Amino acid sequence: MSIKYLLFVVICLGIARHAYAVDLTLKPGETSNAAIDATIKKIRDNCILAQDYFFLKRLSVAQMNSIAATTGGIWRVTSAQLTTVRNACNGILKTKCNEVKTEFNVDVSTLTISDLQKPLYSGLAMSLFILNSVSPVPLQKAKQAQSWKTHINSNGDTTEFVTWSNELEQLNDCAGAQMDLLFLIDSSGSVGKDNFIKTLEFLNNIVSNLDIGEEETRVAVIRFSHFAIVSFNLGKYSTKTAVTSAINAIYYDGGLTHTDLALDLARTDIFATTTRKSIAAKVLVLVTDGQSRSEAKTVAAAKKLKDMGVTIFTIGVVNPRKSELMASASEPNCTHFIDLKSYDDIDFIVKEIKTETCKAVLNAENGVDHSNNPIPKADTTKEQVVDVTKTIQSNSGTMITVSVQCGEVTVYGAYNNNQPSLASYDYMITATDTNPGKLYIVKPTYPSTFHLTIISRRRIDPRISTCHNPQYNVSFEATDASIKVKYAQNNKEVLCSSDDLKDILEKSKSIQPVNFRISFVLGYELAEIKKCR
Ligand SMILES: *[C@@H]1O[C@H](CO)[C@@H](O)[C@H](O)[C@H]1NC(C)=O
Ligand SMILES: *[C@@H]1O[C@H](CO)[C@@H](O)[C@H](O)[C@H]1NC(C)=O
């Protein structure tokens, strides 16, 4: 016989385990934007449909807008399409279907149409159908619209497909992103002057979509051929106009392709020290047409940067050495390496880079306060992904503290998902001006990086008179938290360590704790609570 006691953990604390993790990608009938994005992310992260050029996202909207019946889930996969996919799993798509089995534990050859009510299953079935019947996915929206009509939905209206896609892409995903963005541009002989100018236009295209500023996005450029040289460093220019004119003034050199020298210069010069207060993702975009002088040296130089926490995109134009650029890019390499057929295609990649770059990761350091992170002044949300590395979790867990001024911050955390969101997370906490958020993350028994997504948005608190400077602070502290636990029944207080609580949580699997924003309410057995001091 067991009597359950209600306990209140008095400090603002969240402790979670996978048993009550949120995953909308597996929720039947779910069609929210967040679930669609999380589904596509899972598919891309596992390189199931590499380089889909936003086709899956555009398709989700086009299919839902043009087919009312929800059969086949978000992507409206028909029975005939599912049959095609199932058959292909025993033939041409055998390897892919095995990957799906390994990564998601989904046996495609036995999927039924009602299984596709789950967003992930619908997305996987459509991805496999695309691989079987559409691939390769064209880059341009208009061509994607045509592929949609030809191969997926013969009643589709191609003009509407483009309109819906344009609407989708008006959203500025990068508002206020804090990023140190370095372009490495190939100025070697094989590129040619005309293509070099197209590269500069491409850079400007990306820059025009970012918020340039000292504590927002800072841009630097290194150009390279047989030597590498910093055209301008981070923070040299702090307005969009200044950055654009500096880019337009970059010389074309000609000569050999010593990519490794440029990567080394990025490490020893651009990313060697940080001169800013706020969190900033470090992102490097390498644009090159060809093959470097030494593949081994290039890959080794790129690895050193990745080890420092720099996210690397490689863009190969004309005739790149794919192996070299894939190995130099960050993981998953199928989304961080972009193979362009010509410099004319470069425009279509802007959004891809932009969306990814503003979500690039930052490696958090123990005891370092990341203060004054700006929140966009307009009514847009900002997203920042943070990786809490193993080194920080030296104690039994990590305390993450978020305070905010003139805003609202929501933090999603997870171990097994490198970009947790509303649709998929293990831990969640919110903070407002009057209520800072504290999240205690219990260290898992296996070594693992903890991932956080910090979503911030401006919010005027009526109790605070002026709000000129919306911003938030976040800090990470490896600690063995003592947790004050109060018995609801007899008002007795005991101190539990986080390890005690972890133990209790592990043992009380049948009891679902409820996570409130301020207090954490648990129900568990009397015998177990005796373990606490
Ligand atoms: C790309 O990433 C995959 C998965 O991590 C890896 O197995 C593969 O070797 C990588 N490709 C290259 C060319 O480095
Ligand atoms: C963030 O930290 C800075 C300096 O450490 C401090 O001045 C500021 O008040 C803090 N802001 C919030 C919202 O806690």
Automatic annotation (TrEMBL):
Signal peptide: 1-21
PROSITE patterns, sorted: VWFA
Domain VWFA, residue spans: 180-353
Record keyword Heme present: no
Record carries keyword Signal: yes
Keywords, alphabetical: Signal
Organism superkingdom: Eukaryota
Gene3D superfamilies: von Willebrand factor, type A domain (3.40.50.410)
Pfam families the UniProt entry points to: VWA (PF00092)
Annotated PANTHER family: COLLAGEN ALPHA, PH DOMAIN-CONTAINING PROTEIN
Protein name: VWFA domain-containing protein
Lineage, top ranks: Eukaryota, Metazoa, Spiralia, Lophotrochozoa, Mollusca
